[in-house]
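Tokens for chain A. Residues wanted.
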């Protein structure tokens, strides 16, 4: 039992290190997308890219944004949390595993998506007031929730509504969705922790 707990803690730390390397790879890839052979970035890619490749898919892409690395790190976070608890206490419950999965779905999925949408809407709102085409193009490339924006526009019917008004209303709705979603996931996680087995 003691050996299994120590092994779980060791693998938990190993996963934490690997997750850290993935984040470094993600940030460096924004600056150096094609590393030259023999460089640090090249070897880092050789370590983490096979794992990240398992999650690459068009379904994980929204516009120019690729969510597959965040999904990959989220799955590692689930395993790391489970191993950490088992290594610390020597037992696990189904309720705890379910709570960890619920928290990961929020933290590495829905929350990230909503915050990218919020940032995009802020840029889009500023661009609609300033009439800056470069900022407007950047906001459109980041746009994660175009259907919500169109639904807001349809609420006004045939009336012509300024883009800034649509952006502000969509931004407020997205902020509310983030607040309500966070609280719902906290409640669900706490309910899962109460499962006795």
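Reply:
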């Amino acid at each position: 039992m003691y050996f299994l707990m120590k092994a779980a803690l060791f693998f938990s730390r190993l996963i934490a290190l690997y997750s850290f390397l993935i984040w470094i790879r993600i940030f460096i890839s924004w600056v150096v997308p094609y590393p030259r052979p023999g460089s640090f970035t090249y070897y880092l890619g050789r370590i983490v890219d096979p794992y990240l490749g398992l999650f690459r898919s068009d379904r994980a892409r929204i516009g120019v944004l690729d969510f597959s690395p965040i999904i990959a790190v989220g799955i590692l976070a689930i395993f790391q949390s489970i191993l950490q608890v088992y290594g610390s206490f020597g037992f696990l419950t189904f309720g705890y595993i379910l709570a960890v999965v619920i928290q990961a779905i929020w933290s590495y999925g829905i929350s990230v998506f909503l915050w990218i949408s919020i940032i995009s809407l802020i840029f889009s709102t500023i661009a609609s007031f300033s009439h800056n085409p470069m900022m407007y193009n950047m906001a459109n490339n980041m746009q994660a929730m175009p259907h919500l924006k169109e639904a807001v526009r349809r609420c006004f019917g045939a009336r012509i509504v300024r883009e800034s008004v649509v952006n502000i209303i969509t931004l407020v709705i997205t902020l509310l969705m983030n607040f309500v979603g966070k609280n719902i996931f906290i409640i669900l996680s706490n309910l899962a922790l109460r499962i006795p087995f």
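The CA atoms of residues 27 and 33 lie 10 Å apart. The chain is about 80% helix and 0% strand.
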